[in-house]
Structures are given as C-alpha cells and as structure tokens.
Amino acid sequence: MPHTPLWASVQGRLYDTEAPERAAMPYIVMTLVSDVSTPFADRCEVQFSIVSNRSSAEEAERIRSALIALYDDCDLPGVGTPNNLGMERTHATRVRDGGLWLYHITYEIWIAKL
Question: Domain of life here (predicted)?
C-alpha cells in the first residue's frame, strides 16, 4: 500500500487492531472482525476505522474516498482465475464521537478453494 493516495492521506499511519496512545492524526486502524474457513472458501471480514480530529468531516471523507478507490472491486493480479478471490465492501458508518470523526468501513474477503 505504500505510495498510494490512501497511504499518503494518513502519512503511513495504518495500525493493526489499535493505534498507539496519542497517535498523530489522521490514522486508520485495521481490525480482523471474523475469519471463517469452509470446505469451499476461506472468508474473513476486515474493518478499517478512519480517525480524524478535524472540526469538519472533510478530511475523513477524503481518506474514505481513497480507501474505497483502493479496495472496492480491487484486482489482485497473479492470484489465480477470476472469481477465485474477492473483496467487497459490506458496511460503512460515519459517527462524530468526542470531537473525533470516525468512519468504520468493513470488507469481506474470500478465497475460493479449487
């Protein structure tokens, strides 16, 4: 993800599960929500939480747009045949909480077992 508009919009501040205390803003926290394996596919849900302390939602909206541009209908070359791998946005919410703008965007990712 380095050298993408998303990476630049948070200056590389992408954290796994939780951000460090007093982390510079804006940033994104990526959390594994669920991970399920079936005989036909491996599936997981990943939530990206965008955090901004600006007074307006403009910064968070710009980061959200960069995230969606990167991951919606993403093409992962070299993984195999079409429909072998997929990534789909399943949920998105925006809230204002304690002076922070929070966007929670969830994607389902699956890999078919051939």
Answer: Bacteria
